[in-house]
């Protein structure tokens, strides 16, 4: 059923660009990077990351609640509370059986699992926390949101690596289209800036090693890029059926109108050099949205700042859409939040539609000559926008593309 629109009525964001939608948008549009040396990574070959600034979980959630949650769950709950407020919804008034949660994460409660493994080895089995699994499992952020908001409809945790947040939004739209829910809280959360994850990504040579100037290390599409900068954060979108949003007089920020998913079937980490899986996801999203290439005005690229991804993605965009659409990667500002990235960038895509502004790619000073798309550099580009695509690609060759349209 092409042309089905899920109304986005609420946004919640907590990322390295700031806590809250307004702080995020201001920094992303300004193109100010967030990467910095991280004391928690001291002694590692890569000792910098993009962290959520000034985050006080106890102040945001209450000391007891914060203590019971892994950091990725804390982020999810903070973002969800903002999104529900932004949508003008009151959980006390809704029918919980008609509300769903779909939340993506690539890793789940990494800091909890790492710390409890250390405790097991150092102090024995009797000292492992009874909360290890409720805090560490990948599905528990979605479960926590259901408990917080009295949700009794479908409750799902999606893991497609770095496409998880985008996949969750696509699945959420499918739930609305099927009639299984009227409202869905959808998005992604990640808090994998931990010694084990950073060491592992470094061993794969996926991370930038620009320790001398971390602020410029995330530089998507630049010919001097040498890897991504790991990040953390969460984004939650409130999606509603058009009928439900209209009936309650909701403000609609934008619409999710298409979703495409595919697999490369190629390699455990490297993208298909020909971009065939990414191309399939792009074309599927456009077909689902009933959009032609000429109608796409902006692509929020996956744009990780890795040598292989950026070239393959740009070639695919050029082949499928052409050279007319503006292209940028907000990871130049935020770094790569892994399973949360697709949801964060979906929120930025909606904000771009609302504000008529395409964020620039931070740190992009010398575009790779092999990249033949219309890259937005330096400053934001203003102009009315009607249709936007957002790309997300994950390890294992899992791809998700979302199509958005202005309200």
Automatic annotation (TrEMBL):
EC number(s) on file: 2.3.1.179
Single GO biological process annotation from the record: fatty acid elongation
Organism: Saccharopolyspora erythraea (strain ATCC 11635 / DSM 40517 / JCM 4748 / NBRC 13426 / NCIMB 8594 / NRRL 2338)
Domain of life: Bacteria
Keywords from the UniProt entry: Acyltransferase, Fatty acid biosynthesis, Fatty acid metabolism, Lipid biosynthesis, Lipid metabolism, Transferase
Function summary: Involved in the type II fatty acid elongation cycle. Catalyzes the elongation of a wide range of acyl-ACP by the addition of two carbons from malonyl-ACP to an acyl acceptor. Can efficiently catalyze the conversion of palmitoleoyl-ACP (cis-hexadec-9-enoyl-ACP) to cis-vaccenoyl-ACP (cis-octadec-11-enoyl-ACP), an essential step in the thermal regulation of fatty acid composition.
Molecular function terms from GO: 3-oxoacyl-[acyl-carrier-protein] synthase activity
Protein name: 3-oxoacyl-[acyl-carrier-protein] synthase 2
Pathway it works in: Lipid metabolism; fatty acid biosynthesis
Record gene name: fabF
UniProt KW Lipid metabolism keyword: yes
Catalytic activities: a fatty acyl-[ACP] + malonyl-[ACP] + H(+) = a 3-oxoacyl-[ACP] + holo-[ACP] + CO2; (9Z)-hexadecenoyl-[ACP] + malonyl-[ACP] + H(+) = 3-oxo-(11Z)-octadecenoyl-[ACP] + holo-[ACP] + CO2
Top EC class for this record: transferase
Similarity comment text for this entry: Belongs to the thiolase-like superfamily. Beta-ketoacyl-ACP synthases family.
């Amino acid at each position: 059923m092409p042309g089905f629109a899920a109304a986005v009525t609420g946004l919640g964001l907590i990322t390295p660009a700031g806590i809250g939608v307004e702080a995020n948008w201001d920094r992303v549009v300004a193109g100010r990077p967030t990467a910095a040396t991280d004391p928690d990574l001291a002694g590692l070959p890569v000792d910098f990351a993009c962290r959520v600034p000034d985050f006080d979980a106890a102040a945001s959630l209450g000391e007891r609640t914060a203590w019971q949650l892994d950091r990725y769950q804390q982020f999810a709950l903070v973002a969800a509370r903002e999104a529900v407020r932004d949508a003008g919804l009151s959980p006390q008034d809704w029918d919980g059986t008609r509300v769903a949660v779909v939340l993506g994460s690539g890793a789940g409660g990494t800091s909890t699992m790492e710390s409890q493994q250390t405790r097991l080895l150092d102090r024995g089995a009797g000292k492992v926390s009874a909360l290890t699994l409720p805090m560490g499992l990948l599905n528990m952020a979605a479960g926590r949101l259901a408990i917080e908001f009295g949700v009794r409809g479908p409750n799902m945790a999606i893991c497609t690596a770095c496409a998880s947040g985008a996949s969750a939004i696509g699945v959420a739209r499918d739930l609305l289209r099927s009639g299984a829910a009227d409202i869905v809280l959808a998005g992604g959360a990640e808090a994998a800036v931990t010694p084990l994850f950073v060491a592992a990504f470094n061993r794969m040579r996926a991370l930038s090693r620009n320790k001398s100037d971390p602020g410029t290390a995330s530089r998507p599409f630049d010919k001097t890029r040498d890897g991504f900068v790991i990040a953390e954060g969460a984004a939650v979108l409130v999606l509603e059926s058009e009928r439900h949003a209209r009936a309650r007089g909701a403000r609609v920020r934008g619409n999710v109108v298409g979703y495409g998913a595919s697999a490369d079937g190629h390699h455990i980490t490297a993208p298909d050099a020909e971009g065939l899986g990414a191309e399939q996801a792009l074309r599927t999203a456009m077909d689902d949205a009933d959009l032609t290439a000429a109608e796409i005005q902006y692509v929020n690229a996956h744009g990780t700042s890795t040598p292989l991804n950026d070239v393959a993605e740009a070639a695919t965009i050029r082949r499928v859409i052409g050279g007319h659409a503006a292209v940028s990667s907000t990871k130049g500002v935020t770094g790569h939040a892994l399973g949360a990235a697709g949801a964060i960038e979906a929120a930025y895509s909606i904000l771009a539609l609302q504000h008529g502004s395409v964020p620039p790619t931070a740190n992009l000073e010398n575009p790779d000559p092999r990249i033949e798309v219309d890259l937005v550099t330096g400053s934001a580009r203003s102009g009315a926008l009607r249709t936007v695509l957002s790309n997300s690609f994950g390890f294992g060759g899992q791809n998700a593309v979302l199509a958005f349209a202005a309200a």
